[in-house]
Amino acid sequence: MNWMKNWTFRKAASGLTGLWTFLLLTAFPLYAPEQYSRMGIHKFEFFLGISAACLLPAAVFSMIGKPDGCLKRRKRIGMSVLDWAMLAYLAACLLSWAFAIDRRQGWTGISGWFMGLRTQIFFVLIYFLVSRVLCVGTFWKKALLAGHLLGAGAVFLLGVLHRFRIDPLDLYRGLDDSVQLLFLSTIGQASWYSGYVCLALVPGAVLFFAANKTGVRLAAGLFCALGFSTVVTQNSDSAFAAMGALFFVLFLLACESPVQMERFFETLLLMLGSFKLVGVLQQLFWQEAVQLGGLSEFFSQSTQTWAAFLAVCLAYMGFLFYRQKDPGREAFPHKKGMRTGACVLAGGAVLLYGTAVWLNTSGLSERLWGISSRNQYLLFDRFWGNSRGFTWKFTLEAFWDLPFWRKLTGVGPDCFAAWCYKDPQLGGQLDHFFGWNQTLTNAHNEFLNVLFCLGILGFLAFCAVFAAAFWRCFRAAAAGWTVPAAAAGVCVYAAHNFFCYQQICCAPFLFLLLGLAENAIRFRQEETHRKEGSDHTTF
């Protein structure tokens, strides 16, 4: 009877967790009951509703049923480095809330964002329930994958149509034309949409990169074509930093074998081809196309991207010729060196760009060589990045002035505005720069915001989650395609949100993706135990 009770509760917990995951992937992105009015509030209410209805009972059932996973497969798997990082992050959130400037706001979060302690607890709960409780069998694999491709694909398609003034859901009804640059699809605000698109695109891109079945690759390829098309039309530059991070991780994965390197070239061509196809459509239907700027217009319409597309085509053909000379090679002989070289080049490129910005902003390049630029990407003044230059400088200065113990614990989860506007001097600076009718709710850099709100302890724990996730998932990439997808996902999220902030349309998907990856890794570890007949714990 005890076995039957435990089995029933385990199945109930797994089913509820699977239902929550399916609703998040399919219904949540499309939920927009009042067009763009109160979009953030409605999205959070939907998230809170399904989480309270599914995740909380699932957590209770899992504890009652003493779950050890699907088919009793997890008794021997210990805590992973990612598990400990997650618990450290949760502990830092709890500590910060205990000393928050405003515990009520620290619990719920500021209105419209709602990234308080309550939401952080749900995020960590998502990770542990999905990684421990969800039994990802054949049915759930197909249902969740199909749900994601259809749900996110519909959001992508609507985003592309909106950029050509086609509004099948009548979301722009009664709104001014200027709104079309600021809001699109069923996600709403441009930076929210950008964050969702970049993370939702990752599983499809990795599936297209890793899958062997033709039908799966075709479905993933169509999904990616829609995703890349909406990336180049969403008009947020941070999305291109995220795409750079995605293809950096794909290249590291491709260094494993010639087959994977071929897939890397195909995925890169798919992105560039989607960019240029959008550019052709923008020129053909120029009267209907919404006028974009910055990197979006550059990547879709410039001759430089045509040159890049041609160069990748030639490189791909050259690589195919190389493979024909040695078709039996299954691995690159110097893959470690290839990966090291890629990391050095990527790090060097970032350092070179940062140096160029510093030289131009400080005026040193003009004094030394007579070179200066007012280009928005090379001049880091207070208006840089839609006023992120001011916001970042303000946040760092305000953090420096915090008492020492506040530097350790922060001002409280999502309490950036509560602290800054309570201080007359800080509030006066913000009102002078942004106006009396606007409120700066966060640092517009998730890492800076975590440092200010959760303190040094929270910042270290937050960074540990990213580092542990990438380290664990990249090393175990063979455990299933969701594992390298998580490795790419943390890099994409970090690159994008270095310029943006945590919000409900993006952050839950990161914790879900990490949970799915940990689930696959733990399953693979248990299978290895069974085959080897070993009883020792694997970390």
The proportion of strand residues reads under 5%
Largest sheet: 2 strands, antiparallel
Q: What gap, in angstroms, lies between the N and C termini? A: 33 Å
Total helices: the number is 22
Mean pLDDT: 90
Count the beta strands. Answer: 2
Order of helices and strands: HHHHHHHEEHHHHHHHHHHHHHHH
Considering DSSP H and I runs of 4 or more, what fraction of the residues is helical?
over 70%
Shape: globular
Strand order, largest beta sheet = 1-2
Helix/strand-derived category reads mainly alpha
Give the oligomeric state. Answer: single chain
Structure description:
It is a single chain. The protein has one domain. It has 22 helices and two strands. It has a two-stranded antiparallel sheet. A hairpin with a 3-residue loop joins strand 1 and strand 2. The longest helix is centred in the last third of the chain and has 30 residues. The chain is globular. The C terminus is likely disordered.
